[in-house]
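pls design
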């Protein structure tokens, strides 16, 4: 196992609800890991009409060109365990 192709993919799930203030730091922490390949799955559990949804969308836009960041939005607030299950 000497190169990326030999290693299994690791999925990192970040459920977020009213967490826009720490989301960028969480994403950067994931991107800073030495293990590759990884995919980062962000599950937005904020209400679609809330300012938190808008803030979260704005943050995720900064990372969408990386190719390993997946952004999933719930149609309504469902709770943390539902967000984790969606990511899984």
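designed seq:
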């Amino acid at each position: 196992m000497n190169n990326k192709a030999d290693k299994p993919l690791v999925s990192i799930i970040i459920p977020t609800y009213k967490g826009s203030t720490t989301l960028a730091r969480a994403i950067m922490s994931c991107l800073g890991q030495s293990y590759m390949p990884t995919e980062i799955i962000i599950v937005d559990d904020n209400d679609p009409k809330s300012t938190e949804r808008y803030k979260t969308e704005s943050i995720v836009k900064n990372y969408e060109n990386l190719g390993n960041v997946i952004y999933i939005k719930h149609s309504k607030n469902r709770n943390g365990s539902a967000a984790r299950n969606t990511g899984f």
